[in-house]
Write a structure and sequence with these properties.
The protein is an alpha+beta fold and 190 residues long. The longest helix has 16 residues. The protein is globular, with a radius of gyration of 20 Å.
């Protein structure tokens, strides 16, 4: 025990900045990591949320984030994520096809409109759309698309009637703003 204490004191004396070092974001079991063909993707869970994979997969998502203490099936807020290979498919055509399928699913009274610019932590723009229907409640609130050239990442915000829409939107935007798409590199490569 005395040796461990002595080693700890030596580290603190020799490296004073080390004890004060903290990271703003860390990878943990609630962080989604996906290696694409040319980019690595990192998606952090919002504060107070956990990542679910198996339950989300059974519902067609690659993964999802739900509030801690809630199950995927009963979550009041769910942020679903899908990773798609799109080699050769035009990104804008893919968005058009997807939003057309959303309109087909919810009917002609649904409105889909772009939001103000949203940017990932890595600096890339993420086209984001509001989904709404003035006549009835829609659980699907927002959808976003990231163009990774060979992959497209789709983010979807789904809520229950128990959640104020504006609060859920803030949480969703925070996920997008912390999202990173980083080039795949080799150690020692310049």
């Amino acid at each position: 025990m005395r040796n461990i204490l002595l080693a700890s004191v030596m580290v603190m004396v020799l490296c004073p900045g080390l004890s004060a070092y903290t990271t703003e974001k860390t990878l943990d079991s609630n962080t989604a990591y996906y290696q694409g063909e040319t980019l690595n993707y990192i998606i952090y869970a919002p504060n107070g949320f956990k990542m679910v994979i198996e339950e989300a997969g059974s519902d067609g998502y690659s993964c999802a984030f739900v509030p801690e203490g809630e199950s995927f099936e009963d979550a009041d807020i769910m942020i679903g994520v899908n990773f798609y290979k799109i080699r050769g498919l035009d990104f804008n055509d893919a968005i058009t096809q997807d939003t057309l399928s959303v309109r087909e699913h919810f009917g002609e009274t649904v409105t889909i409109r772009p939001t103000d610019s949203v940017f990932a932590a890595s600096g890339s723009a993420i086209p984001t759309f509001y989904i709404n229907n003035q006549r009835l409640f829609l659980p699907n609130v927002m959808i976003s698309y990231y163009n990774g050239t060979t992959e497209m990442i789709i983010f979807e915000l789904v809520i229950s009637e128990n959640v104020p829409r504006f609060k859920a939107e803030e949480i969703f935007i925070s996920v997008l703003e912390r999202f990173k798409a980083l080039p795949i590199r080799q150690l020692g490569a310049r």
